[in-house]
Each structure stands twice: as structure tokens, then as C-alpha cells.
Amino acid sequence: xxxxxxxxxxxxxxxxxxxxxxxxxxxxxxxxxxxxxxxxxxxxxxxxxxxxxxxxxxxxxxxxxxxxxxxxxxxx
Length: 76
Hints:
The protein is mainly α. The chain has two domains: 13-43; 46-76, no CATH class. It has helices at 11-36, 48-69. The protein is elongated.
């Protein structure tokens, strides 16, 4: 009796990875466009609420970049 080792292609994982990457790429493009437009603000109308909002965005993005680049609390 011969047993064959089943080789399972990684197609499902690869497709899920590509899908998640495409989603991230779309979000990054939208954020870049919003940043290029100064987050829909006009210099004469900027207030401390706008500063707080941008600091919040920066904090969330810092969590992602720290994790991706193993920096901050993710440093080894």
C-alpha cells in the first residue's frame, strides 16, 4: 500500500493575502489624497479640534507602523 502525501496548494491563503493587501492599498491611497487636500481644512478655519483629530489619526497610524517595523512597544 502506497500512501501519498497530499500537497495542499496555498491558493486560499494567497488570495486572502492579496485581497487584504488591496484593501490596505485602497485605504492608503484615500488617506494620501485626503492628506494632500490638508484633510479638507482651510488654513483660516483650522482649530484645536482639527489638531486633536490629526493627532488621533497619527496615533492610530503609529500603532500600525510600530507593529509593521517592530518599533515602539513592538521593538524586539
